[in-house]
Amino acid sequence: MNDLEFGTRNKKGDWAPSQHLELPPFWSWPPSLGRVLGWVMGYVWPWNLVAIVTALLWWQLVVPDAGTLRTLGWGWALQLFAANWLGLFAYYGFFEWRYYRRRVQQRQFKYNGRFPAEQPSDVFWFRSQNIDNFLRSFLVSVPIGTAIEVLLLWAFANGWAPAVSWSDHSVYLVCLVLLAPVLHEVHFFVIHRLIHWGPLYRWVHSVHHNSVNPSPWSSMSMHPVEGAAYFGVALWTLLIPSHPFLAVFLFHAAAFGAIVGHLGFDQLALPGGGAQKSSAYAHYLHHKFFEVNYCDNGSVPLDRWFGSWHDGSPEGERLMQERFSKKKERLNAA
Ligand SMILES: [Zn+2]
Ligand SMILES: [Zn+2]
């Protein structure tokens, strides 16, 4: 692995890719068929596939039948919580252990030249980003997300949510499942933009931004209010006619998907050789500069439309600085 073939490293040891971020190809005209096909592959493989496969596994093995779900009970709720907790711990733990503990590729392709363990700080519980982020993710966010999932399954079982059956509406439901990650992206952009508003930022979102150098444990490290808003994406099933599986899938897309922007590496060395692109750079730039890339723009270029897109290029940097100076002028004038 030689990351200098793909990017540059500055004096601080931070690596940046030479290839700039690109917006989804079907938003530019004329769209190139090759690039659209490449995008479709990247939409499913690998990150969304993890959410689909785990949601199907949970649906088959963990989620009880509608008869049980009709009554809210600690038994099945705790069973679901245990499965979510252990599944997410194993998944996140794998990345943390392989790339941050064992450091199989050291600092190759690492955006920030340092590891969180090397940077103790008073902003974190026990002065440790790793301990703080792990506790907030697994003792706060996962229970909140599971609670929302439990309430939705209970609502569906009692006929309080608009449900359609697989047998009558299979094509519609498959389309909904395939579009769910887009819904997640738009939902995330809206709530994220909202909690960047001064008072909400200081009260709520600053907790997540304490991690300027994010790692896997940072992914779900949030204030409880942000955790509820983030996993609240599954509540859309109360408005959109769907199926309880969609509520489970939206939880999985949010929970297993959160890691993507927080991997910290542009390419990951795979256990059997070869490497996998991470798609983490857009959100890494958000952690670095705060007021850019409110979503990953993986399917809908919301940041481009609202003027907050940073593609990692010198031009992206210039546009951001221009925006920051204008904001400063406005604040000074006020
Ligand atoms: Zn983040
Ligand atoms: Zn933010």
UniProtKB/TrEMBL annotation:
Name residues in a coiled coil.
none
Which Pfam families does the record match to this protein?
FA_hydroxylase
Q: Which InterPro entries match?
A: Fatty_acid_hydroxylase, Sterol_Desaturase_Related
Establish whether keyword Cytoplasm is in the entry: no
GO molecular function terms listed in the Swiss-Prot or TrEMBL record: iron ion binding; oxidoreductase activity
Regions crossing the membrane = 36-61, 73-94, 134-157, 169-191
**Single GO biological process annotation from the record:** lipid biosynthetic process
- Gene Ontology, cellular component aspect: membrane
Tell me which UniProt keywords the record has, alphabetically: Membrane, Transmembrane, Transmembrane helix
Q: Any idea what this protein is called?
A: Sterol desaturase family protein
Lineage per the UniProt record: Bacteria, Pseudomonadati, Pseudomonadota, Betaproteobacteria, Burkholderiales
